[in-house]
Design the sequence.
């Protein structure tokens, strides 16, 4: 039992908030295995009930980053990831986007997990496609160099989170940890296209990323999805040159038609993997359009364009000329 957490819990019970340093210490105690399940659950729910603050998010992210197993990535590398938790069961959008970007020469250090809120997570679909998601840590830089992209399986890189796993499962509800994953990329990338299950968290997450060194960010929510969607308007919070802005993005801005969210409904890992490979081989439809929209936004974040329509054209060409499929094949070879 940690005596350090007792006064923190007493304060949280009164509705008080923690500073960045206090949150970093508290989550450091949890991740070091010094807190009991009751203490962990109490801290998580006290924060959840009165809503976590940016300072608490920032401190928790710092605690995670200081304990993660990192990967060296080149400057300019980008992550494309969502929080999960939208319960949409959609096809794998950010994973497909990764290959489109890598095919265009944008280095992607993708952080992800197995299925949590959907039937098929990034790790599940990549495994089905023949990618080894358990590459030894020491080989990861060479994989990234050879393929232009890499998948970093969150539980491997953030092993310290195992201490909170039991209480999180038993609570069975959203906690601060659902927000932290996309904020603690193991390659410490400074550029992120990140989706969130609830648009009210977009600005706090961008503020947290700004506090922890990110330079270029789009934090997005689209019609209930933690992705950009072609179903309608998307809410976006951006970070650029230290300034945070809010905007609405529509598929029409990228020259894309609208389609209902049901058109990107997924299934098990075999179904999603088949759809992803078909997309990379040129299959048309709502899935392709959705991936192109997300890739266009990511190209803006990566500094390759300033215009969604131009980004969409680049993404479509990258699929049609086989570059995106080649990126998948390169990752399969590099991780074998």
Sequence:
């Amino acid at each position: 039992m940690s005596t350090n957490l007792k006064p923190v819990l007493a304060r949280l019970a009164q509705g008080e908030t923690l500073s960045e340093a206090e949150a970093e210490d508290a989550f450091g105690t949890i991740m070091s295995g010094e807190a009991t399940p009751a203490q962990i659950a109490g801290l998580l729910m006290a924060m959840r009930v009165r809503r976590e603050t940016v300072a608490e998010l920032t401190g928790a992210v710092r605690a995670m980053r200081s304990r993660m197993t990192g990967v060296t990535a080149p400057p300019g590398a980008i992550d494309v990831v969502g929080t999960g938790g939208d319960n949409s069961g959609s096809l794998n959008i950010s994973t497909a986007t990764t290959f489109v970007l890598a095919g265009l020469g944008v280095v992607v250090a993708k952080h992800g997990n197995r299925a949590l809120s959907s039937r098929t997570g990034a790790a599940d679909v990549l495994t089905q496609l023949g990618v080894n998601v358990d590459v030894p840590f020491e080989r990861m830089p060479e994989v990234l160099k050879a393929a232009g992209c890499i998948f970093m399986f969150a539980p491997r890189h953030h092993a310290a989170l195992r201490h909170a796993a039991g209480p999180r499962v038993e609570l069975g509800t959203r906690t601060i940890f659902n927000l932290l994953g996309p904020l603690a990329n193991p390659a410490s990338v400074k550029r992120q296209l990140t989706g969130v299950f609830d648009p009210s968290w977009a600005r706090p997450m961008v503020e947290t990323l700004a506090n922890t060194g990110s330079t270029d960010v789009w934090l997005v929510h689209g019609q209930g999805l933690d992705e950009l969607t072609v179903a309608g308007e998307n809410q976006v919070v951006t970070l650029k040159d230290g300034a945070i802005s809010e905007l609405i993005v529509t598929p029409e801005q990228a020259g894309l038609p609208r389609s209902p969210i049901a058109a990107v409904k997924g299934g098990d890992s075999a179904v999603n993997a088949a759809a992803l490979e078909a997309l990379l081989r040129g299959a048309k439809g709502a899935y392709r359009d959705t991936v192109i929209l997300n890739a266009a936004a990511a190209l803006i974040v990566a500094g390759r364009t300033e215009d969604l329509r131009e980004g969409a054209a680049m993404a479509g060409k990258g699929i049609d000329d086989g570059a995106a499929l080649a990126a998948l094949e390169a990752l399969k070879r590099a991780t074998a």
